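Pasting as-is:
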Amino acid sequence: MSTDRPGIDPLDGLRAPQDPDCDVFLTGTVFLDIIFTGLDSAPVRGTESWARGMGSSPGGVANMATALARLGLHTSLAAAFGDDHYGEYCWDALEQGEGIDLSMSHTVPGWHSPVTVSMAYEGERTMVSHGHEAPGPTHVHGDALPAGEPVFPRCPPRARAAIASLVPGRVEPWVATAARNGATVFADVGWDDTGRWDLDALADLEHCRAFLPNAEEAMRYTRTDCPRAAARALAERVPLAVVTLGSEGAYAVDATTGASAEVPAIEVEALDPTGAGDVFVAGFVTGTLADWPLADRLAFAGLTAALSVQEFGGSLSAPGWDEIAAWWQRVRTLTGQDPAALQRYAFLDDLLPAAARPWPLRRAVPTIGFRHPA
């Protein structure tokens, strides 16, 4: 996993001495992801399939944490880690490899790391996961916590922003605390297994500045048949509603200003969509904290997501500024480009360094870790 990243701070010029050290706080479950790519079709019952590519990396909430850190944001993650080799690998990869602050995280003795095996084929993915809820007692920095203590923090660190994953019927007290402490709270949501699709069941939504569901989720929650209408309906509940439209791009409505924006997706050949949604959120959070115009935020988030699906793995594929600079340098040399489409990304000129490495770039490695000679 690469640790060499250019010294780009997207918040350069916006930082002040009284600001919190943490840019973004998030919490959730870290999985060990094992990804197989290069499958021509779904595995067939009773047969053995060989994949042409494979990678291993921290997954789950680590996808978004890695994407944030690679974009230059000071990222703090609270998560439980197993005390097995998988957990040790994930901890080292995130803390040492990506520079993520794990001071709010803890190791759980005797608990094995959750694992996901992902198989990518035909632009889609199939996943098999296994894991158990982290039990108490736990250890934080070697200090034992009493049995029954919550896995996630009651008092999150002071941060510019926090990212919450909303679950119907569940209240996470740390979300309200983060908002009271001045954090801009961004929220995403998963599939509602209850089938009720009731916005009122998302109790923590009232503390959120921005809500970023996909089109299907947005339409179900708002009882609309158009994702753009869904975004407008959600903007009546949150200051900023962003609906991702898949291959069509994304649409956003800012209720505080009345502005809306829509940016089409970049057409790419998708190798593995794992983590693309997390990367989109990370890109949008970056642009929001940097106070970019709404359309630029959508364009940047879509670009980072498009770059991620061209690599395999979740956290493995999250692009950094090197990848973004290399793409921008390359795309302007291609013939037949739509000038209006290129102009959409002209704001990158003021952000990016000269590309240090040629396109394409590769981060993924096939194994959990090589033994390096001392």
